[in-house]
Structure formats: C-alpha cells, structure tokens
What we know:
Helix 6 (about 115-125) links the parallel strand 2 and strand 3 (about 135). The chain has ten helices and six strands. Helix content is about 45%, strand content about 10%. A six-stranded parallel sheet has the order 3-2-1-4-5-6, covered by helices on one side. With about 220 residues, the protein is an alpha/beta fold.
Amino acid sequence: MRYDLVIFDNDGVLVDSESLSNTILAGYLTELGHPTSYEESIRDYMGSAMHRIHELVLERTGRRLPEDFDDVFHGRVFEAFERELRPVVGVTEVLEKLDADGVPYCVGSSGSHERISVGHRKTGLERWFPAGRVFSAQDVGRGKPAPDLFLHAAREMGVAPERCAVVEDSPLGVRAAVAAGMDVYGFTAMTSAEKLTEAGGTVLFGQMAELPELLR
C-alpha cells in the first residue's frame, strides 16, 4: 500500500455507534431544555469532542450545560453500548488485510479513552488496538476540526503526515484530516457524499470492504 499509516476514526468507522449515541444525545439535550432532534444531533455534533457540544449550546442559548453532563451522557451511552453495540460491518476484514500487508494503523477519535475502550471491549476490537494505537481528543488541546489529534497520532506512530491516510465519516473529521495534510477517505454510511465532499473528502466509499483496494 502507498501509505505508512492508516488512522481510523472510531465512532461510525470502527464501531457502529453513531445512531446510538446521537439518539441519546438528542434526548438528553431535549430533557435539559435544549430541544434537539436526532437529525440535528447528527448535523451539529457528529464527530465532535465533548467540549464542542458545551461550546455550541452555550453560544446558541447563553446557558451552560450541567457540570455532570459528560458523566450522565457517557453513562447512558455505555449502557446502550453494552446492549447493542456492534463493529462496523467489514472492518475486521480491513484490519486483517492491513496486518497482512504490514501497514500500521491506529485510532484517532474525538471520544474519550474510556468510550473507545468500552466500545472496543464490547465489539472485540480491542485485540486490534492496544494502548499504543489509541489516540483521543483527550490527548490534545483541541478536538476536530483542528488537525491536532491526527498530527499527534502521526507523531506518536513515527510517520510523516503526508504518508498518512485518514478514514472518517464526519465533516468535522474530514476537515481535521485535510488541515493535517493527510489524504482522507470519506465513509458515507452515515453522512452524505455531498457533505463529505464539501468538507474536503477526495475519496468516498460506502462499504468498508471497498477500502483496502482504495488505499493501494
């Protein structure tokens, strides 16, 4: 393959979590007096680090979310993960192919380390992603769409940004990858091709099984 490192987003790319987490987020924000539909949650918050949710709500309403918002939200998400979370269809075959080809890979996620760990344990993906291959927005000062997380992951893995491919499913993540100077592959399972293209995605695909050939 032509890349020295493949960086995967987590939610929606490795684990099929976006529908679960955005349903919960929309419901919780509505419960707190910030009416939010599932579609609005996908549009506004998909791919965001938690700090961005706080910032957007404060900017729009002038009201801060409760101090325990993150803990309550994650508690509800983790309960849903235990009941329903599955790996994205075809992703284990992609990881097997990368291993067979000797191509390093890692995670660069807006989610917390705890969220990544819970999801990977439930779906069996933890065997593919030991601690040294997991990077979270918690590790850097700014989350996506800033390039910091992807640049941090490349630096820790010892690979130049221009030798990295990023697999993303959100406009925020695509913008972060472009800003980092990396090639980006936009997964259209949850986000329209149009929105990913507008964000800067140059290669789009709808089935994970397509990815290995695209990376060549």
